[in-house]
Design a protein that fits this description.
Shape: elongated
Organism: Bifidobacterium gallicum DSM 20093 = LMG 11596
Strand order of the largest sheet: 12-9-13-14-16-15
Family: Belongs to the XFP family.
Cofactor: thiamine diphosphate
Helix content: 25-40%
CATH architecture of the largest domain: 3-Layer(aba) Sandwich
GO molecular function: aldehyde-lyase activity; magnesium ion binding
Structural class: alpha/beta
CATH superfamily of the largest domain: Thiamin diphosphate (ThDP)-binding fold, Pyr/PP domains
Protein name: Probable phosphoketolase
């Protein structure tokens, strides 16, 4: 699938911009400025008809003016360019507080009324439009998902360029002007976002035009890039691989039509250069171009009163938020507001009924070319289902022959084989992203059908730069921010994908996951016109229990806790899966690749491990979220069990199964339960898709002790089951913030989740006095096993050579279930 080609993209205008368009853009700018101020200030009387009084001003003034007029100016010219060139365009608004500009743009292009028919094109509709902004029961103050045309809210700064470049990948007709605020330009993610031009190419991808909007100030301080010299600034961007243009306006008394003419001419020059780049891309010359970018300097709060109460406002930090915070409270400030709004001459922009006059919007694009209507900005409209290969082709079939617990397989390598063929079947709509970890996390099978996209020069491809080309469906940059941002935008524009990261470093993008979850939550709850997009699939690998070689800094499974915070409103935007083995991981991946409007975190080890389930069993386990390993339990009914042994995660399952083997030899009666979809455990009162209380009680019993070995922090599970049946009898053990560079056994030992401690804990839960001698033996052996590792540098054979009883290890191809898993260097 490719995104739709709208209009006739990449065509030069070959004529001056018409005077009618110049005048139209000025009227648009005035109208959008007026509407932006109206959204911040007015609750009634949107056209200031007499009597216009302080009672028409909102009681609580919320919003931001400072960046908005510059954005309105740019939107006028972007609309003109789209219309004149018939150019397929998505707009990215990086400044977080430019929401009034985005909603005004959608109202002016007509899409706002189409999606919200109650916001009519008259005075009544305009009043509702003004009043709803940052108002109880209304809309947010950002360029939020509620606004047609938005794929980037900007509430958290730093990701504008990541989203822009993700949107153009495999989207060769798409033009994305991306406004970067000068405050945003100080963030780490944005700083690395400039490097994205090395990871796309103009033949198979669209074009991003970064526009750095320098208005000089943040909330209360000057911005760094606004204060460096022009020479330094231009050299900086040349060094990043851009051809910088600069435009300055608003610092003198130049008339506005003249400013529009100058900018229109410059914008055409820039777009001509882009068209030349696209034309050259269709020849044999694939040398990476210097892409144009624009430095756009205007005063902060452009066109607002230059001074308020004798203090400089336009062109200062005082214009950042609400310049007239007392417009309702004092007559003096109200008069300033009235004169300010009147300066845009609304009588020339609106007719007697309050509708926008035709000559304000005649220059703008029509139909799907409108910013608010472009299907790329509502990706679910153009999304197609993946062509998924049959999962049976990748099954670990030896489990059926050699027994549950067979083998030593790297689960994520199986996922890599499956994903390889998804790319083969969907060559331009599925991508893998990763921070230099695609092969490390065992997804390198993809290189059999695609390359890593790289347009930044090569050394010997045979000896050094393997699997690299200017086109490819794998993108690697050592920035978790970029990986997340690229994939978010790729999904938001109708495509599919996955990215992987080492578990401890997923925390780098905790807040990005939060922001994307909030976008999905808003969409699911209240924006039916936004059609479902493909899910964000995140492979969390190189996990805590197999980071024994990299040490304490690499040991942190806490992303689970972050994601669980987004599971309490029945929005169902979070999937949190623990792959027990390779077959379970395949079943999880199949479910996640089919899902929509979710963030699926898939926790899976990449080191050799046993396979406990057949594919059919794995699919049933994933479908239910949790289930009994009947073949491992030594009871038939709940009444027979003395204890329930439960686990979530590959290593916790390995340790629990070894403990079960020891308990069985001691004559303990138990039931074995495995949890794959953690959120299914959540209280049914909080999650209508979770296990019912009856199902929960059937699985974990109503009154028997439950020993739960959990991959991450134990409080995750405790918080989920707080009011479940039998919750008081749960003993949850997990990572306890203990670790080092050590051995696999010692890593589980220091967190009290090793098989010997689990066995001892189970015996204590059943009858500590009865099993006192056995518990003492286990505790002594733990010390002995640790000393063995200290003395030898590897783990004791009792640990490394254990296999589940009944596994056939003497047949061709059969391997010990948990033989040494020290792992690679990364």
């Amino acid at each position: 699938m490719t995104s739709p080609v709208i209009g006739t993209p990449w065509q030069k205008l070959n004529r001056p911009v018409s005077e009618e368009a110049i005048e139209g853009m000025d009227k648009y700018w005035r109208a959008s400025n007026y509407m932006s101020i109206g959204q911040i200030y007015l609750r009634s009387n949107p056209l200031m008809k007499e009597p216009f009084t302080r009672d028409d001003v909102k009681y609580r003034l919320v919003g931001h003016w400072g960046t908005t007029p510059g954005l309105n100016f740019l939107l006028a010219h972007i609309n003109r360019l789209i219309a004149d060139h018939q150019q397929n365009t998505v707009f990215i608004m990086g400044p977080g507080h430019g929401g009034p500009a985005g909603t005004a743009q959608s109202y002016l292009d007509g899409t706002y009324t189409e999606y919200y028919p109650n916001i009519t094109k008259d005075e009544e509709g305009l009043q509702k439009f003004f009043r709803q902004f940052s108002y109880p029961g209304g809309i947010p103050s950002h360029f939020a998902p509620e606004t047609p045309g938005s794929i980037h809210e900007g509430g958290e700064l730093g990701y504008a360029l990541s989203h822009a470049y993700g949107a153009v990948m495999n989207n060769p007709s798409l033009f994305v002007p991306c406004i970067v605020g000068d405050g945003e330009a100080e963030t780490g993610p944005l700083a690395t976002g400039w490097q994205s031009n090395k990871l796309v190419n103009p033949r198979t991808d669209g074009i991003v035009l970064p526009i750095l909007h320098l208005n000089g100030y943040k909330i209360a301080n000057p911005t760094i890039l606004a204060r460096v010299s022009d020479e330094e600034l231009h050299d900086f961007f040349r060094g990043l691989g851009y051809h910088p243009y600069e435009f300055v306006a608003g610092f003198d008394n130049e008339d506005h039509l003249s400013i529009h003419r100058r900018f229109a001419e410059l914008f055409e020059t820039i777009f001509d250069e882009i068209c030349d780049i696209k034309a050259a891309a269709n020849t044999d010359d694939m040398t990476r171009p210097f892409y144009p970018m624009l430095i756009f300097r205007t005063p902060k709060g452009w066109t607002c009163p230059k001074f308020i109460d004798g203090k400089k406002t336009e062109g200062s930090w005082r214009a950042h938020q609400v310049p007239l915070a007392s417009a309702r409270d004092t007559e003096a400030h109200f008069e300033v507001l009235k004169n300010w709004m009147a300066s845009y001459k609304p009588e020339e922009l609106f007719d007697d009924k309050g509708a926008i006059k035709d000559d304000v919007v005649d220059f703008m694009p029509k139909g799907d070319l409108r910013i608010g209507a472009n299907p790329n900005a509502n990706g679910g409209v153009i999304r197609e289902e993946l062509d998924l290969p049959a999962l049976e082709n990748y099954e670990v079939k030896e489990v059926k022959e050699f027994g549950h617990g067979w083998g030593q397989l790297e689960a994520t390598r199986k996922l890599g084989e499956y994903t390889r063929d998804i790319i083969k079947n969907n060559p331009d709509s599925f991508r893998i992203f990763g921070p230099d970890e695609t092969a490390s996390n065992r997804l390198q099978a993809s290189y059999e059908v695609t390359n890593k996209q790289w347009d930044n020069g090569y050394l010997s491809k045979d000896l050094v730069d393997e699997h690299m080309a200017v086109t490819g469906q794998v993108t690697e940059q050592l920035s978790e921010h970029q990986c997340e941002g690229f994939l978010e935008a790729y999904l938001l524009t109708g495509r599919h994908g996955i990215w992987s990261s080492y578990e401890s470093f997923v925390h780098v993008i905790d807040s990005m996951l939060n922001q994307h979850a909030k976008w999905l939550e808003a969409t699911v709850r209240e924006i039916p016109w936004r059609k479902p997009i493909s899910s964000m699939n995140l492979l969390v690998s190189s996990h805590v229990w197999r980071q024994d070689h990299n040490g304490f800094s690499h040991q942190d499974p806490g992303v689970t806790s972050v994601l669980l915070n987004k599971t309490f409103n029945n929005d169902h935007v979070i999937g949190l899966y623990f792959a027990t083995d390779a077959n379970v991981l395949l079943a999880i991946a199949e479910k996640c690749y089919k899902s929509t409007n979710m963030i699926n975190a898939i926790v899976a080890g990449k080191q050799p491990a046993a396979t406990w389930t057949t594919l059919d069993e794995a699919r049933e386990l994933v479908a239910k979220g949790a289930g009994e390993f009947e073949w491992a339990s030594n009871v038939k009914t709940n009444d027979e069990a003395e204890i329930v042994l439960a686990s979530a995660g590959d290593v916790p399952t390995q340790e629990l199964m070894a403990a079960a083997d020891r308990l069985n030899k001691l004559g303990v009666k138990f039931k074995v339960v495995n949890v794959v979809d953690l959120i299914k455990l959540q209280s049914a009162k909080e999650n209508d898709q979770a296990l019912s209380d009856a199902e929960f009680a059937e699985l974990f019993t109503e009154d028997k002790p439950v020993l739960f070995a959990y991959h991450s922090y134990a409080h995750d599970v405790r918080g989920l089951i707080f009011d479940r049946p039998n919750h008081d009898n749960f003993n949850v053990v997990g990572y306890k913030e203990q670790g080092s560079t050590t051995t696999p056994y010692d890593m589980v030992r220091v967190n009290d989740i090793d098989r010997y401690e689990l066995t001892a804990t189970a015996l204590r839960m059943i009858d500590a006095d009865k099993y006192a001698d056995e518990i003492k033996k286990l505790e002594d052996f733990r010390i002995e096993a640790y000393q063995f590792a200290v003395d030898n540098g590897y783990d004791i054979p009792d640990y490394t050579d254990w296999v589940w009883p009944g596994v056939k290890t003497d047949l061709p191809g059969a391997v010990s279930a948990t033989a040494a898993t020290a792992g690679d260097n990364e």
